[in-house]
Amino acid sequence: MSVFFKLPKQTKVSKNIPKKAFDSYTNTKQKNLFVEVVESIRWQNKLSVETLNIQGDVIQEIQIFEVKLRKKEKIEKLIEIIDKSIPYHIIFILTFENEIKLSVSSKHIHPTNENNAIIDWTFASKWILNDEICYQLNLKESLDFIIKDLKLFPLK
User: Structural domain of residue 15, as residue ranges?
Assistant: First the structure.
C-alpha cells in the first residue's frame, strides 16, 4: 500500500502492529471492538528528517498506517485510540474491500504524560473506490506542511 502515496523507498517500514499493542489504552469493550472491526494494522512508512531530509518546526515525524477493516462501522473511536497512544502524527489509510478513506489529525504531546497525545483536529476523507485515488504528498516544503496540505488536498 505504500504505492498509494508513491513515496521514496527509504521511507518504507512495512511492519505489522499487533492490535494488542493498544490494550493499555483501551477498556474491555474497546478491545472487543478492535477485534470485531480491525483486521490488521500495518506501519507502512515513516516520514522524517532521516528518511526525507526535510524537517518540521512542530512536527518531527509522520507515520503512515494502513488499517484493514472487517467493516466500516465504529472506526472513528478506534482510530482516535491509536492516534492518542502514539506521540507522532499519523496518516491513516483505512481500507475496506475496494474502498479507501484517509484520516489525519493534528495533535500535540500531553503536558503531563509524554506517552499520550492530545488531538487538536481531525480530517477524514469520504470513502472512495480504490481505483479513483489520485493522492500525492507534497514532500518539498516541511513535515508541518505535509499535514496541513493533506487536509486541504482534494480527492479526485
Answer: 2-152
- Here the cell at position 109 is 504531546
Q: Could you report the per-residue pLDDT of 20-79, keeping only the tens digit for each? A: 999 999 999 999 999 999 999 999 999 999 999 998 888 889 999 999 999 998 898 899
pLDDT number for residue 132: 60
Rounded distance between C-alpha atoms, residue 107 and residue 84, angstroms = 8
How many domains is the chain built from? 1
